[in-house]
Amino acid sequence: MNDKIPLLDLHTQFKEIEKDVRSAIERIFLSQNFILGPEVDNLEQEIASYVSCKSGIGTSSGSDAVLAALMALKIGPQDEVITSSYTFFATAGAISRVGAKPVFVDIEPNSFNLNVGKIERLITKQTKAVIPVHLFGQACEMAPLLELCKTKNIPMIEDAAQAIGTEYQGKRIGSFGVIACFSFFPSKNLGAMGDGGMVTTNDESLAEKLRILRSHGSKPKYFHHVIGGNFRLDALQAAILQAKFKYLDAWTLARQRNADIYDQLIQQEELEEFITPPWRRLNDRHIFNQYVIRAKNRDHLKNHLSEQGIQTEIYYPLPMHLQPCFSYLGHQKGDFPEAEKAAQESLAIPIYPELNKNQQEQIVVSIKEFYKQKL
Ligand SMILES: *Cc1c(COP(=O)(O)O)cnc(C)c1O
């Protein structure tokens, strides 16, 4: 019997970082300062500089980061925001929560990222923002998207929840758009011990707006010129994230190493007929938040792997345009065929930094077994 392999192994990670995390938490015990303050300030500076951006504003989650970004740009009812049909719900949910209309676009088959060539025809007078999502840790095709946003004068908000440290043509994701949104959900490359997020921007007046918005729109305290929310990052999470941040680049390197090993094993075992390893744009920094293959007979493969104790996940089984909550938009099956196809075929297999080569071999052998049974 093989050992079980989880999709993410935070227990093993914790052994490596335990001392650092405990001393970070100890600082919070001693300070008894839980809301904003120096821990949040320090993390904001570290992350902003890591993503080559002037300002970082800690938020309660990645979802609230997207929400606050839309609010800071005063996007609301009557407005339209273009985003990918193939993303985590939060991107589209935030657009709806400010009262605007999500306008979905299909994805490129190779990268799973939004298809920039299909955006222009969706732009109307109501289009107030475009939200590219750097899915699984790989950047969207930014050059033509930036060009388009510039000529049409539409602000870009980046959903970089899965893309901390990702690079496009040598430049870090975080300042391509007017605002970028990051998440510290535990499964992200830099995960908190709870929820957390951050927005980054180079625009000082937007940064100030975001800081005000995350504390109910008040400045000074108890005087409200705008309506915000409680979108603050906890000092406790900020302290933990600072401790973990030191390891981020090593973890990302390990994920990239694991991705290379998978690519090789899939080739060696001649599995390309059945599964397609993730496509990568050459020379870009893909941080492999997920390693997502396309698989024939995906659901059965997933079950087979599960029986072997190998945990996988489907990101995402239903594209946004087919979600029941968005039925009011009037979309139908077939509207975005590439997103729908990806939802049928994609499967994330374990890629976490602590995964070792034996485990990866075990996974690839199990995949091979499955397709051999079928022959
Ligand atoms: C994780 C994620 C979010 C939301 O982040 P939370 O911190 O979980 O709220 C938003 N967009 C994408 C693409 C994500 O993967």
**Mean pLDDT over the residues:** 97
* Percent strand: 5-15%
Low-confidence stretches: none
Q: What is the correct CATH architecture of the largest domain?
A: 3-Layer(aba) Sandwich
Given the structure, what is the number of helices?
11
Report the CATH C-level class of the largest domain.
Alpha Beta
Strand order of the largest sheet: 1-9-8-5
Which small-molecule ligands are present, each listed once? pyridoxal-5'-phosphate
The number of domains:
2
CATH domain fold name of the largest domain: Aspartate Aminotransferase, domain 2
Series of H and E elements: HHEHEHEEHEEEEEHHHEEHHEH
- Category from helices, strands and their pairing: alpha/beta
Q: Total strand count, please?
A: 12
Radius of gyration: 21 Å
Features:
12 strands; globular; Aspartate Aminotransferase, domain 2; four-stranded mixed sheet; Aspartate Aminotransferase, domain 1; alpha/beta; binds pyridoxal-5'-phosphate; 11 helices; 375 residues; 2 domains
Task: Describe the structure in brief.
The protein is α/β, with parallel strands linked by helices. The chain has helices spanning 10-31, 38-50, 62-72, 89-97, 142-152, 204-213, 235-245, 248-268, 298-307, 337-345, 357-374; strands spanning 55-59, 80-84, 101-105, 127-131, 157-159, 167-168, 171-172, 179-183, 197-201, 275-276, 291-295, 346-349. Helix 4 links the parallel strand 2 (80-84) and strand 3.
Descriptive report:
- The chain is α/β, with parallel strands linked by helices and 375 residues long.
- The protein has 2 domains: 10-245, Type I PLP-dependent aspartate aminotransferase-like (Major domain) (Aspartate Aminotransferase, domain 2), CATH 3.40.640.10; 248-374, Aspartate Aminotransferase, domain 1 (Alpha-Beta Complex).
- Helices cover 39% and strands 13% of the residues.
- The protein contains 11 helices and 12 strands.
- A 4-stranded mixed sheet has the order 1-9-8-5, with helices on both faces. Strands 3-2-4 form a 3-stranded parallel sheet, covered by helices on one side. Strands 10-11-12 form a 3-stranded antiparallel sheet.
- Strand 2, helix 4 (89-97) and strand 3 (101-105) form a beta-alpha-beta unit.
- It starts with 9 loop residues before the first helix and ends with a helix.
- Bound molecules: pyridoxal-5'-phosphate (PLP).
- Pyridoxal-5'-phosphate (PLP) is lined by residues 61-63, 87-88, 90-91, 133, 159, 161-162, 183, 185, 195, 197.
